[in-house]
Amino acid sequence: MEGDVAMPKLSTLPPADMHWQINLRDKVIAITGANRGIGLGIAEVCLANSARCVYSLDLMDPSEDFAALSKKNPGRFKYKQMDVTDEESVKRAIDEIVEEEGAIHGMVCNAGMTKHQPALDFTMAQVEQLFRLNVFGAFACATAAARKFIALGIKGSIVFTASMTSYRPNRAGPSAPYGGTKAAVRNMAHTLAMEWAEHGIRVNSISPGFVRTAMTYAIERAPDWELKMKYYGGMPRLALPQELGGAYVYLLSDTASYTTGIDIPVAGIVGAW
């Protein structure tokens, strides 16, 4: 909490006049790394499910796909440049959202990176870069959002993007450090959920399997890809980023008022086997 002021505890029960339809009506949602890839797909589904406003918090400039989605949702899909590894940058972005919108209700800690190569080929600098962005950045965003939720008296929701590589090796594109970062994120969600439950703040994670993004471009084009898919026994394809969105919408919505501290695999069974 900010300062030493004791904040009143909120009831964790849903309101008596709860509207049980799953949507994000009247909610302001921030998504890190939403200028492209999985983050952009999540943003599209949040907007389709009535979010009042969605902010992409990204270090990179908006993509053409971002501009197209923003044009389809005038005044509802916005961008703020933010560096998740810089605490002051994170705090400033969240403060600005609240100043502009009057509130913030959901934070999706999605920004991340990977590098697929054998463990012995990694330099320590590369490993540190992965952890700085994927773990430290996610922690900075989650804690900044939680402080703001508590200060505003909002029972907010935080959703981390973990990965099926947090459960098992990714044989199609091995990356031991990346899997380690996502295991850390998934575990962190459980502990933060326990710590912040008394404030009505829910913390969960989503573990995608193979998703069609720039980071998985090479995996789908590997010469043995079709053979691997034949024996996986799941859906023989990569997911579209938007296919993850329903899980995020549920966890961000008020209907998930008793759902916290869990991970939802969205992997078409294939996952990262």
UniProtKB/TrEMBL annotation:
Ranges in a coiled coil: none
One Pfam family it belongs to: adh_short_C2
InterPro entries: NAD(P)-bd_dom_sf (IPR036291), SDR_fam (IPR002347)
GO MF assignments: oxidoreductase activity, acting on NAD(P)H, oxygen as acceptor; oxidoreductase activity, acting on the CH-OH group of donors, NAD or NADP as acceptor
Keywords annotated in UniProt: NADP, Oxidoreductase
PANTHER family: BENZIL REDUCTASE, CHAIN DEHYDROGENASE, PUTATIVE (AFU_ORTHOLOGUE AFUA_4G08710)-RELATED
UniProt similarity note: Belongs to the short-chain dehydrogenases/reductases (SDR) family.
Protein name in the entry: NADP-dependent mannitol dehydrogenase
Lineage of origin: Eukaryota, Fungi, Dikarya, Ascomycota, Pezizomycotina
